[in-house]
Write a structure and sequence with these properties.
Length: 119
């Protein structure tokens, strides 16, 4: 067998009880779509760098741009995507816009991902 082949059953036998249990607990298509879209947001290294910066402090766009050696425009574009995914939020402080993680779930998701890749 070639190294890149997927192992599969030698005989087709449907285990109705298992199929029924899996089907019963499968989320609906809308929820699966939303979940897939959420994980797509994590698929960009710039957005990941922004999230890691926000792990350390609530900071303004200027500081994120300086930290990542990028333009404010590029950072703003990525922050918009993170905000749409409800991963970050912001507040105004005078003339500055301060970004922060939306909740502790963001850190948990990334911590779990890091654990997984380090296994």
């Amino acid at each position: 067998m070639a190294e890149n082949e997927i192992e599969k059953c030698e005989v087709e036998e449907i285990h109705v009880d298992k199929v029924r249990a899996v089907t019963k607990n499968m989320p609906d298509e809308d929820e699966l779509y939303d979940l897939a879209e959420l994980f797509k947001v994590f698929g960009d290294s710039t957005r990941m760098r922004i999230l890691f910066a926000l792990f350390e402090a609530d900071i303004c766009v200027c500081d994120i741009a300086e930290t990542l050696n990028m333009t404010q425009s590029a950072i703003s574009h990525q922050l918009k995507i993170l905000k749409q995914a409800k991963l970050v939020n912001f507040r105004r402080e005078g003339k500055s816009v301060i970004y922060f993680l939306a909740d502790d779930h963001v850190r948990t998701i990334i911590d779990q991902g890091r654990e997984h890749i380090e296994e």
